[in-house]
Amino acid sequence: MRTFDNPYSKEYLAELGGAKSIDIVGLLKRHKEIDEFKLADKLKMDVKSIRKILYKLYEKKLVSFRKTRDEERGWYIYIWRLEKHKLGELLEKRKDEAIDTLRAQLSYEKTNQFFKCQNGCMRVPFERAFEFAFLCPDCKGKLDFFDNTIIVRQLRRYITQSAKIGG
Length: 167
Known about the structure:
Blueprint: H1 7-17, H2 20-30, E1 34-35, H3 36-43, H4 47-59, E2 63-69, E3 76-82, H5 84-110, E4 114-117, E5 123-125, H6 126-131, E6 143-146, H7 149-164
Antiparallel strand pairs: 1-3, 2-3, 4-5, 4-6
Helix pairs in contact: 1-2, 3-4, 5-7
């Protein structure tokens, strides 16, 4: 099971629900269940903000809830629980998607020849350079062959490093 305390987990949580989602998850980790009013009180936040973040976490199934009725007021109270196992699944899916994107970029880099404007305006594949008569459409500078070996090497390195994360 992945920990919620590592940098990748915190970054993901912050992307989902903002920086305060890290604090909410921290409290949920310490309590088997806790209602949104207690969360708001402990974090010195308003209940609407807490709910908004909890709903974002709920969309990804990182939290679940049960509702009970407050007999005095007749309101429903939502009691939240952290689904600890789900974070690992979500991070693994995210990692796989990132690796797929890197592999697609690597394939594109390996199967194309590139030309770059001598003034640095753009880099285009051969077909586009040919369409432009090897002249930059922005500045009319010459489009010269661009060796993308370093890019290919770096993409391979990123793929290898990404595969090792959490693996």
